[in-house]
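Sequence, please.
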């Protein structure tokens, strides 16, 4: 039964039936998308926008929509999926945040410059580095010059409403541009609020249209073939840009018409510029999104004290409502513009710069403008902060001057006396170079022989990662990594791509790493470490490192996981083809666990994740897992291996080999399977058993490819230890459904593929030419 709370909220009556839900901003973006029933969503998980795809996937399992959800190999790929889908004439949707948006940035002007509509939710988050996953507007400001109209959302209600209006705006013949709907990450995206929605999908379709408007060109019309994105000379290109620019400015007028129509239907109005008590204001604060709601309380407090205060917040910043802002500030003595991102070196954030330009353009030379950067990295914004922003404006209005036109608000000035002290002492070289492991190259075979002592003798080697990190109970990453590192002698330099292993070990100002550590982006670790490796060898050649007294070369190790060999596969292959002397070690937890257990390409078919849910219309992931080890072996690097802590001596032997090859020949790739109890829905104590079963089912075979020759290093069939696939699957909640009779066909497909890969591996083991 629909509940009408419009009168309670003080809004005008609408004409369409509505109902109340209690959801977050991300849920409402997904809810609007499912009501629109887009054709395609290309996506890649990144916090805090990841949930949008998760909610849509969950709804799809019960048949609530028909959207085809395409998990890309990275945000650049997801943007390409969306662009391709939009050129084919259907409705397209996406959601991203922060560095993910920057990774797809190259594609954004292509989408708008060729005039193909779509809607993308930008759930705003800090752009690193260093890494911060909380909300500010640094990604939003990068969007300003991409040619996409940008709508803003201060609460989950606005997320829902703007998503519906955005599609109508994008598809309007006078606009025909892709549109961004921006909300604040971890503020609006995750806060639960009462939201009014259309009760019936048919009413949404009556507003936006059941399908895209007729007359749009697309690539599927064989009778009217088109060329998309041609090469253009200068006179043609400037004309194209002019047409795009005019469409952008028309978007403001079209939006105004759409929001008026929407207000009549729903009783909710979103004017281009939201003005709060600005009719006689003498001082004002200009803010975007969620903070704009907080500052309204401050306006009321100041009004009660006799201060004529007001607040301004745009619902659209592309096109920038310059005239409306200038008109609103005409009688205002001073305004503080709060920017949740800095335009470094620009003497103010982007909103400050554009507001000043608006005042100048429209003849307002009297209103004083104060610029303050606030709330970076998700720093909380309270009413007290809003009051302080008003105090800056009040002081400027009183004195007629702005003493400090630009500054940060809420930062803490550094105190050298309080600099963090070293907590962990560097490890001693003598502790790391034990001599217990011997590695001897065989001149006859060209391979490497390794002797490993009993494991108890290696326990005296110090752990390279200190206890006290924030990993989940039962996490297999660090037991797996430490087992591998026991096989490495001497000093290392480690680079970690973004993922669980990185996030839980480096909470500033402390670090669990006892050796030199570097972090770089999810996709670019291999390229980054390549640069480190080559700089080391070149500086060593020039004698620039002699004073450091290095006893031998570093071993350079890149740690990747949580899907890093999806988005990072290209740079990893590039590093392999260049054959840098380094190790790439992947911990495979079968998903993007650091962002909430979304599917990765290493997730096996049928397995449940937050973006491959199980329901009446869908049974887990719909395609097979990627065989990363075989892909890397195809680059013809000197050494590739798989390993498992359930077979510790095998892993130690391979680690020692990996070090020798990385120091003497070239790039090494290794993959270890590790358990993730939280997202595999398994018991903490069963981790080693699950990994052991994965090996003994032949799902995760243990082998090495040394100088192109494949050797199976552990064969469960020969040892009579092979176990049925169902024995393994029953141990994890994410796969238990595969053992049910109704999923027998899917289980058979999974088992058949595992058997095919295992037989191919045995054939390679038998022949040095395969």
């Amino acid at each position: 039964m629909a509940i009408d709370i419009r009168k309670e909220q003080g809004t005008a009556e609408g004409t369409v039936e509505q109902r109340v839900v209690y959801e977050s901003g991300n849920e409402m973006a997904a809810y609007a998308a499912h009501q629109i029933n887009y054709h395609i969503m290309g996506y890649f998980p990144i916090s805090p926008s990841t949930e949008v795809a998760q909610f849509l996937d969950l709804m799809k399992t019960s048949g609530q929509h028909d959207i085809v959800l395409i998990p890309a190999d990275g945000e650049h790929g997801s943007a390409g999926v969306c662009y391709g889908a939009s050129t084919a004439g259907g409705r397209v949707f996406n959601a991203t945040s922060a560095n993910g948006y920057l990774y797809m940035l190259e594609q954004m002007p292509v989408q708008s410059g060729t005039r193909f509509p779509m809607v993308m939710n930008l759930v705003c988050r800090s752009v690193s580095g260093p890494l911060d996953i909380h909300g500010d507007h640094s990604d939003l400001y990068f969007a300003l010059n991409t040619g996409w109209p940008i709508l803003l959302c201060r609460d989950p209600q606005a997320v829902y409403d703007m998503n519906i209006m955005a599609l109508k705006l994008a598809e309007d013949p006078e606009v025909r541009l892709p549109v961004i709907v921006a909300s604040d990450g971890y503020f609006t995206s995750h806060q639960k609020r009462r939201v009014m929605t259309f009760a019936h999908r048919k009413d949404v379709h009556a507003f936006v249209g059941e399908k895209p408007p007729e007359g749009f060109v697309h690539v599927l019309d064989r009778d009217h073939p088109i060329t998309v994105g041609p090469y253009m000379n200068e006179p043609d290109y400037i004309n194209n840009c002019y047409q795009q620019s005019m469409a952008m400015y028309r978007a403001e007028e079209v939006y105004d018409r759409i929001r008026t129509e929407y207000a009549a239907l729903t009783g909710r109005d979103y004017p281009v510029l939201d003005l709060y008590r600005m009719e006689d204001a003498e001082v004002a604060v200009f803010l975007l999104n969620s903070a704009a709601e907080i500052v309204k309380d401050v306006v009321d407090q100041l009004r009660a004290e006799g201060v004529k205060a007001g607040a301004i917040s745009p619902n659209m910043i592309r096109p920038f409502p310059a005239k409306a802002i200038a008109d609103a500030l005409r009688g205002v003595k001073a305004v503080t513009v709060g920017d949740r991102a800095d335009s470094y070196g620009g003497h103010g954030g982007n909103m400050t710069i554009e507001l000043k330009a608006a005042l100048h353009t429209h003849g307002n030379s009297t209103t004083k403008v104060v610029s303050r950067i606030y709330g970076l990295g998700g720093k909380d914004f309270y009413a007290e902060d809003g009051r302080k922003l008003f105090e800056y404006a009040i002081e400027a209005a009183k004195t007629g001057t702005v003493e400090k036109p630009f500054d940060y608000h809420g930062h803490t000035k550094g105190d050298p006396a309080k600099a963090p002290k070293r907590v962990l002492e560097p490890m001693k070289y003598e502790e790391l170079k034990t001599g217990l492991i011997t590695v001897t190259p065989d001149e006859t075979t060209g391979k490497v022989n390794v002797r490993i002592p009993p494991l108890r003798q290696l326990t005296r080697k110090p752990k390279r990662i200190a206890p006290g990190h924030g990993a989940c109970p039962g996490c297999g990453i660090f037991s797996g990594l430490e087992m591998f590192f026991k096989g490495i002698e001497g000093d290392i330099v480690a680079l970690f791509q973004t993922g669980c292993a990185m996030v839980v070990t480096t909470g500033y100002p402390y670090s669990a790493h006892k050796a030199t550590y570097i972090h770089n982006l999810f996709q670019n670790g291999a390229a980054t470490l390549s640069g480190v490796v080559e700089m080391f060898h070149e500086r060593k050649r020039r004698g620039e490192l002699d004073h450091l007294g290095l006893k031998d070369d570093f071993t350079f190790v890149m740690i990747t996981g949580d899907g890093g060999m999806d988005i990072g596969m290209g740079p990893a292959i590039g590093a392999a083809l260049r054959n840098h002397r380094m190790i790439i070690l992947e911990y495979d937890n079968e998903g993007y666990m650091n962002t909430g257990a979304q599917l990765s390409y290493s997730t096996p078919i049928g397995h449940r994740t937050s973006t491959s849910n199980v329901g009446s219309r869908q049974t887990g992931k719909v395609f097979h897992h990627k065989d990363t080890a075989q892909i890397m072996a195809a680059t013809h690097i000197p050494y590739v291996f798989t390993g498992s802590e359930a077979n510790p001596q095998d892993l130690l032997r391979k680690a020692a080999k990996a070090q020798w090859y990385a120091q003497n020949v070239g790039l090494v790739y290794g993959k270890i399977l590790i358990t993730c109890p939280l997202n595999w829905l398994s018991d903490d104590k069963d981790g080693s058993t699950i990994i052991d079963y994965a090996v003994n089912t032949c799902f995760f075979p243990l082998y090495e490819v040394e100088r192109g020759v494949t050797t199976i290093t552990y064969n469960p069939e020969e040892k009579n230890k092979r176990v049925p696939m169902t024995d393994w699957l029953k141990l994890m909640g994410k796969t238990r459904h595969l053992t049910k009779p109704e999923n027998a066909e899917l289980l058979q497909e999974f088992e058949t593929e595992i058997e095919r890969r295992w037989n191919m591996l045995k054939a390679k083991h038998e022949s040095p030419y395969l």
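The first strand starts at residue 18 and ends at 23.
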